[in-house]
Structures are given as structure tokens and as C-alpha cells.
Amino acid sequence: MQLDFHYYATYCAAYLAGYSHEESLKVCYSAQFPDNCTRTFLAGVKAPVSAATTQTAIEMADANTDPIGLQDITRIWASFHFLPYDLNADVKKGGNRYKDKYRLICNPNGELLKETVNLVRGKSLEGVGMAMHILADTWAHRYFAGTPSVVINNTNSFFYEILEENGEWTERPVNFKHTPGESIEKCSYINSLGADSESFIMNLGHGRAGHLPDYSFIRYKFMPAWNDNHFIYKDNPDDYYHAFCQMIYAMKNLRGEGGAFETGVYAFETAAPYEKEIRAIIEKRQLDACADWKAFGEKLSGQEIPEFSVDAFRSEYESAPAEKKDDTGLGRFTLAALAHKSMVTNRIYKSGSMLAGYSLDYDGKDVGIKDYLKLLRFRKRGNRT
Amino acid sequence: MTKEQLTTQNPESVRLLKYRSSLMASGGAMVLFALWTVLRSIVEIDNELSTRADTKALMPIVSVLMTVSLIDLVLKLYVGLSARREALGRNKKKRPYLVLGIIIAALSVVWVIYILFEFPGACRLYGPVYPIVTLAVEATALYAALDLVFSAKKVRQIEEEMGRD
Amino acid sequence: MNKMSRIKNLIIAAVMIVFAGVMLAWPQFGTPMIMLVVGLYLLFYGIYSLIFYFTMAIHMVDGKRVFYRGILLLDLGVFMLSAYRGSERLVFLYLMLMLAASGAIDLVRALDFRKQGASWKFRAVMGVVCILLLISAFIYRKEPTTLTYMYCIGMFVSAINRVVSAFRTTAIVYIP
Question: Is the Cβ–Cβ distance between C77 and C50 less than 8 Å?
Fold first, then answer.
């Protein structure tokens, strides 16, 4: 998903879940921030770089694709943008290496989503926002895995938009290219370069499907490499509406309503009075729905929603003294990110896969990524991330 | 069409896509192998000529070899690219490339049998690696030709059954 | 990375440095040695492609092209090992493309770093060095030892990268 949904739509969902305007702003800011929190940014403000939740195109082009590099890439993308659905799926084909990659395929309503939401219960609003980003992406980025893999993430020329015109349903081929300039009318979109190398960085996530998973209006069918010549029909408007309603439910739950978070539950009744309006925004054929979501959110709360700017977190963090940095927005966000990345890496490791690297209980002797010691110290002090 | 028709897939459709995928791969393989064979032949001939003092006498043979190579290249390019077009569903008129494909496959069988006969001698002359790889390449080219013919036939058969012909 | 992988990386790096050193000392043997290395690389990459096909890509839609690629690379490798005269031009072109891509990525990354306020000078220097190497290689392309010197510098950089990788801390994530 992109800024329109992660920032503005999450604001709307947070407000409908009962958060105040100021709280909703904190939540939605941190729901967008996982798409901006790169190593380069964190290094620039001298924050722990292991809390990085994304990589820029240049960072990815420069990334090592040796085993350590691939583990690092997988930890970021599988944790924050392609949360695995079932790490113990019964895969009836391939050896262990193939099965490990297959099990990283993202889909909504998996066990890891439950853990993600429960991990931020009683913690900061920044953590809630981060969890909403992950939840929303399980809907948009389904059927792809957060690790470079041609045998899972590749697509081919079988790629068609399904659209309704004057009551008739038709399909038209999607034209992919690698130069800027997308056109809805011509059905022309950008995607990443294809290569048959398994660990080629362009085979990460939904790169081969371009930005199509991130456009709420589009319905399409395509053939993922793992699906044995069966195509998948992706109904983005339906998925996005489910994501919106599930976010409302999750945030109501985190605010203390209705017991433990369960998957497959949606706050349809809360969204019902606004369903027509929300669906109209989702189904409007436009590459960027920020203006519409912003207008809807401001109508809901009666307050102005500021434009998203990564500098808001930066300036607060840089001006805070060293001992107070963890109490800033960025400080709380990085702790939530470290905790979440830690959890997902552990679950992947415990499923028998080394794709995200080692994950061990700290025994006072092993030395690993020192940034995580910060998380440990924070937890030992009984603080909330 | 209805939305259901566009978004659900029957078993016939799955088989069709499977054979189209095979056709695409074998068509592409035929094109690449043909191009590589010509490029290699040019370098080998150039290398051979550069080691001889008098090359004028060899010119007629070289000319014949190059002509035959080019004809082979053109035919294989036609067959391979036509197969790829059919795999993408762009073949409105059924092109006669299949007949040429069968001829190329038959000639590939003969060529592989010839290589097998020459294999012991080649091993003595060049060692084991070069003849084994050559045999593997020619056997793969034969497999690609056979796969192309088989997949093309299957694609046409399934399309007829599905009433698209 | 476990201990065996680290040791393996260090050994490979040492072999690469020695090999590059030998070629620099006797550049007249450079081209045949490069053909040997490139030929072996292609041969093993072809074998790797075939193994990759039978273990992974066989389950992938359109996976058959990986098999065909493997066979083609095998043949290309054997061809290089036979040291035909026209092959060194192909190798030269390949090295030029690698230098161009490497230099461009380093420079763009340096600009990205600079925009974010992080340290960028080392990246920029690496990018400029790659571009200068590329330009020199092109200017002196007709010299018989240019290919050798280009290849040796590439080997040194690759070896240093392997040494750095071998000493990188393995990521261990703490669980609360």
C-alpha cells in the first residue's frame, strides 16, 4: 500500500475506532513511517540502524546478496511488508530450500498477524501505527514473499486487468515497462526488471507486479510462479475494504474493547454508515487517492490532517537529549520496530528456516546486533515500547 | 463475458497455460541455440583460418558452410519466433512452422545419433569434457525441438476443444 | 555465517589476491589465464543453473528456461576454455559493463546518502574510481595488457569484499 492508505485511511480508521484527533495523527504517522524508515535515514539522525523497516531502491541495488545480506533483507521485508501467513504450511513439492521460501508467502489473517497486534497491546501509539501498516500490507501484498526469490515472486506475461464497463465485464492485458510514466487509460504500468537469478534483488516482494498491489481501484489476474499454471484473481477494492474494517477492529481491540485480537474479524458495522463513501474512494480510478482520503478524514474529525513529512520525527529526535531520545516519537517507533522484527525473526527461525538468520535467547554471552541490547535494557527496566 | 467467466479457471485452461509455457520456453531455446551455434561457428572458422598460411583454397568450403549455417539460422529463428507468438496467443492464422519444426526435430535426431557414433573418437582426441558437453547441448536442442512440436500440437488441440479455433 | 563459511571466504579471497598478483607480475599470460577463469566460472554457473532447475525452478511457472540457460552456459564455458581468439572481446565487454553498473550505483547511492545527511564521501570516491577505470580501459582497449589490468583490479576489490564479509558479525536477534 502507499501513502494514501497508510497515512490518511489509517487516520480515518483510527478515528472510527475511537482515538482522538491527536492520537489518530500519531497512529497514522507511524503507519506511514515504515515506508520511510531506512538505514540511511536512521544513520543520518544517529538512531539504531537495525530498526530500519524498509530499504530505498538504491539501498537494495547496493545490498549484498550473500547469505548474511539476504537474511538482512528478509528480516526487513518479511517483518514489515510481507508478513508470512503460515510458517508451517504443508508444502507438497520441492526440497527444504523451496519449502522455506514458499512458507514466507504473505496473506492476511495468519497467526503472525495475531502476534503482531498483541505485541503492541498496552504499548505506544507509534507501535499501534506500525502494526496497522503491517496489517494493511498483508491484504495488499498477498501472494508474494518478503525475500528475493524468483521461484516464488516471479510473474509472466499472463497479467490482465479485469474491469467493468457499462455493466459488462472485460479483461485487457497489462503493459509493463521499466521507464517512468504510468497510465490507467492505456493500462501501462512500471514493474521491476526480470531475472532468473534466485537472489536477484528485483525478485523481492511484488516488484514483478509493479505497484498494482498498491492501487486500491484495480482488479487483475496474474500467474504467480508458485501456483502451477493456476492464475490468481486479485480484487483490490474488496481487499482494501476488508483491510480498512480489520484496522478499525484491531484498533478498537487495542483500546480495550472486546478481548483478545482474533483474525478473520472485521468492524463492518462501524464502517457501515460510511461504506458507500469509502468504497467510492477505493474504487475511484486514480493512482493517488490522498486527496479523497484526506477530505474524508477531515470530514470525520472536523480537524485538519497535516501533510506527511519525515522531518517531523527527525527534528524531535535530533533536538532531544541522549537520555530522552527513547521518549520521542522516533524513539518509541524504533523500539516497537526492533521488538516486532525480533519476534518475526524468531518465529521464522523456530519454524526451521534460516532465511531470516539466527534468533537466540540472550544468555549474557552471545554478541550479535548491539542495537537489540537497547531493546533488552528497555524491557529489563520494565518500560513499555 | 461475466465476471465469473473471467475470474475462474477450469482444468482445460490450466493445461493450455502449461503447454503455452512449454512452447514459449522451447521456442526461445531454439532461437538462442541457433544464434549461439552461428556465433560459435564464425569464431571457430576465423580461428581455423588464422592458423593456416594459405586460406584461398578453403574459401569455397567456408562459403558453403556459412551459407548452410545462415539457412539453418533463418529457419530456426522462424520456427522459434512463431512458436513464441503462438504461445502468447497472437497467432491469428495458423502458421506452417510446425512442419518445419518436425523436420528440424528429425534432423536433430540424426545429428545426435551421429555425435553418439563419433563420441569415443572425440573423447580420445579432445578428452571427455568437450564431447560430453557437446552431446548435452545437441541432446537439449533435440529435446527443445521435440517439446516445441508436442506443445504446439497440444495447444492447438486444447484450443479447438475449448471452441476458440 | 558459521565458522566454515568465514574460513571458506578467507581462503577464496587469498587465492584471488595471489592469482591477481601473479597476473600483474606476468601480464603476457594474463589473457589465457582470464579465459581459463571465465571459462571455469561459466562452466560452474551452467552446472549451478542445472542444479537450481532440478531443485527449485522445476516447480516454477516458466522454469524450463532456467534449464536451457544452464545448458547454454555450459557450452559457453567449454568454448571459453578452448581459448578461441574472438572470446577475449566478449570478456572485455562484460568487464566494461560491470564497471559501468558498479560506478553508477555507487554515485547514485552517494547522492542518496548526502540527501539524508549521512556519510557519503567514501561511496562517491568508489564511484568515481570505477568510472575512471572504465574510461582508461576504453582509451587503452587496444593494448594487449588492458584486459589483464582491469581484471586484476576487479579481483582485488572482490577479494577485499569477501574479507570484509568474513569478519562481519553474524546477526543474532535477542528474544525477550
Answer: no
* Contact across the interface for A97 and C116, Cβ inside 8 Å: no
CA angle C76, C104, C152 (to 5 degrees): 50
Does residue B5 fall inside a structural domain? no
Question: Which residue among B26, B33, B50 places its CB closest to the CB of C85?
Answer: B50
Query: Which pLDDT does position A383 carry in this prediction?
Result: 52
Q: Could you give the number of structural domains in chain B?
A: 1
Q: Is A96 an interface residue toward B (CB < 8 Å)?
A: no
Work out the pLDDT band at B165, boundaries 50, 70, 90.
very low
In chain B, residues with a C-beta closer than 8 Å to the C-beta of C70 are: none
Neighbours of chain A (3+ CB pairs under 8 A): B, C
Q: Do B137 and C75 touch (CB under 8 A)?
A: yes
pTM above 0.90, yes or no: no
Write out the DSSP string of chain B: --HHHHH---HHHHHHHHHHHHHHHHHHHHHHHHHHHHHHHHHHHHHHHHT-S--GGGHHHHHHHHHHHHHHHHHHHHHHHHHHHHHTT--SS--THHHHHHHHHHHHHHHHHHHHHHHHHHHHHH-SHHHHHHHHHHHHHHHHHHHHHHHHHHHHHHHHHTT--
Q: What angle do CA B100, B106, B108 make, to 5 degrees?
A: 100
Task: Report d(CA A159, CA B85) in Å as an integer.
Answer: 16
CB nearest to C105's CB, from A61, A343, A366: A61
Of A95, A341, A361, the CB nearest to C55: A95
C80 vs B22, higher pLDDT = B22
Q: What does the pLDDT look like over C8-66, one tens digit per residue? A: 888 989 998 988 888 888 877 777 778 888 888 889 999 999 999 999 999 999 999 89
Q: To 10 degrees, what angle do helices B129-161 and B59-87 make?
A: 40
pLDDT band at B93 (very low <50, low <70, confident <90, very high): low
What average pLDDT does range C125-134 have in this prediction?
84
- Mark yes or no for CB contact A221/B6 under 8 Å: yes
